[in-house]
Amino acid sequence: MTAEIQVTRALFDDVMVPNYAPAKLIPVKGQGARVWDQEGREYIDFAGGIAVSSLGHCHPALVNALKTQAEKLWHLSNVLTNEPALRLAKKLVDATFAEKVYFCNSGAEANEAAFKLVRRWALDNFDESKQEIISFGKSFHGRTFFTVTVGGQASYSDGFGPKPGAIVHAEFNNLDSVKALISDKTCAIVVEPIQGEGGIIPGDAAFLKGLRELCDQHNALLVFDEVQTGVGRTGQLYAYMNYGVTPDILTTAKSLGGGFPVGAMLTTTAIAQHLKVGTHGSTYGGNPLACAVAEAAIDTINTPEVLEGVLKNEAIFRECLATINAEHKVFAEVRGKGMLLGAVLNEQYKGRSREFFLAAADHGLFALVAGTDVVRFAPSLVITEAEIREGMKRFASAVAQVVKG
Asked: Residues that bind N(2)-acetyl-L-ornithine, according to the entry (predicted)?
């Protein structure tokens, strides 16, 4: 008879690779924007699994989709297609600029596919010299070796040997820095419309429009990484819709599955044709379970009620943060849009975002950081006003704790 395993935080240190340092508490149940740990303590969730839990925990539409599909079909491989994948692809195409969809399991995989596609597109249409990718400092595009190198944070890509070449980094929101780098050897510009891990830094409208124009002038593709900004998080289904700038390729994940692993790359028919049969793939990509859940997420989120609600919730967040800041004077500004917000610490508290993050947990609130200077909030898109205000009361106590030392 197998002995029952005692699940404690200490077990993590015994059996898990130490690339993470999770909190001491272990959540066991969630409902909406609330989570309970092993001890029965309740938390308000302003983190959303890092902008993933778009409809909170155990949303009935997602639970029902998962249960229903689980009794039908789980996995096939891409030797065969399946109904949920085709329905989800059709809905994504109908709702965006895209004409073709590629499914995978994560944001990193979606970006990996996008970066391989821009290189293949350039090789097919031009020659081997047109392979350079322009990205931006402080950007983040995933943890595969290709995506982490395109990302603009060397600390994530250093220490693993020779990096993929023909990747250069300009300064975000500085169009002149891009003009200094772009040439006929450029195959693509890759950009987050709002930099997430880099500090919740929105792209200027003129900057993003300028990137579109530069790509058109130099026969390069514009890739929008919307892994964190997509699926309603900014009050539009995708953030590009806020700017009036249409990319050639868009990547999406996180909120797309509401917590179930799924990612997608969206593009046009003309560009998609360069990923011919056998050039790229994913064993689990587009599996029926993931696509059924993602379809339910899209159906629920892509409505005027939810998207307008995201902007109403943003206003409540900003109001509460302004009240906290009026008393404690810790933030220089609040950046971001919708349910992707960053409270930027002022000079007095610079470098101390983790202290606020830890204090929040002490007071029953899950928050995030975006670097050492920004406290990040990425909750459920359908979080209630009561939950926001209760969470902000707890955050106010956490801020007071840090301020008082």
From this structure: 143, 282
